Amino acid sequence: MNIEKNQIAQHNDTLLGKHQKQLSHLKNEWESVDIEKVIQKLVDFQIAIPSWALGTGGTRFGRFAINGGEPRNIEEKIEDVGLLHALNASSGAISLHIPWDIPQNPEQIKSLAASYGLKFDAVNSNTFQDQPGQALSYKFGSLQHVDKAVRKLAIEHNVEVIKQGIALGSESLTVWLADGSCFPGQLNFRKAFENTLNSLQEIYAALPANWKMFVEYKAYEPNFYSTTVGDWGQSLLYANKLGEQAYTLVDLGHHLPNANIEQIVALLLMEGKLGGFHFNDSKYGDDDLTTGSIKPYQLFLIFNELVEGMDARGMDHATSLGWMIDASHNVKDPLEDLLQSIEAIMIAYAQALLVDRKALTEAQQNNDVVACQEILQHTFRSDLRSIVAEARLRAGAALSPLNLYRNLGCRKSLIGERGQNTVATGL
Ligand SMILES: [Mn+2]
């Protein structure tokens, strides 16, 4: 389904009066800030949508395809991301998971994506499950495996994913490994690290010069005793040993409980080794919940460090890092969920842009702990939704994407086009 420009214009017309009142109130509140500059940064900021988030996700216990109208192939997944991008003008990229989504005709897929204003973000390899007919198993790991032949299979898969990405105009590879061990004594940690490093080096050698490799870490699951890229320190070790094109990727759900993710982000940025981001939210572990649904203050504090750290290095907020959602769950319409996640990310980014850096630095220098907290919480507690909406309006999108999605009956149309019992490839 396509959303027409006049449908967006009509929707915006009905909300415009109220929106303008809220925006002018906000501009008065923040008269010392260059709001125009903030709005432009919001317009430029794009978050990639993963191809596996467009269908209802599964859990270890089951999968409920409650919505119907799920995309049946890569073309329909691109159509769904195009729908999101038409609604919010902030979802201008798609991230493919190979082999869940293998483009048969890359040129055609690329031009289909371009017709919706979409680019291809990082491509993701998958050595955490065996594919049908696969000669050797990843049951005991892939790049870390004790058997060289299994490692070779996993390396070749990653090189193949790079090739697929090149054909689509992608410029980065994300490697997330399920490798690790479930029981003490199962692995020689040092050998597992060395095998993994050697394997990653072979993949790294296949990267085009303009590509980045993102090494994603995860504390536990599916292995529960050790993970071979278990935390940001281990990821940074690999990235440093691999070379300039390798970076650490932070997935918000991949830490032990209560980890200080904002501090991790600050130090990785300081080292020039933060490459990309996977947004989601969690209460306990890798829950893959809607971004900002559980810990919006943490999301803001992370963005606060991102903005401060990127500005310190003169980095372009929109293009220097890979921004992507990585979430998937059972109980919401996936497109509504993604609209909510994007909105939460844009709000947190806007809040971070408005932090009074000069006053904060001064308060830090004076050890004025109370003032430091006040400065951060002042922006966090301000309602900045109208500048995020203004950025959308200027980019030709909807003032209220979720309402428009519902009012137009988008899910109903998708069910009409695709049927009730469709299941997207993926988790
Ligand atoms: Mn991830």
From TrEMBL:
Keyword RNA-binding on entry: no
Q: Which GO terms describe its molecular function?
A: isomerase activity; metal ion binding
Per UniProt, which keywords does this protein have?
Answer: Isomerase, Manganese, Metal-binding
| Gene3D superfamilies in the cross-refs | Divalent-metal-dependent TIM barrel enzymes
Quote the protein name from its UniProt record: L-rhamnose isomerase / sugar isomerase
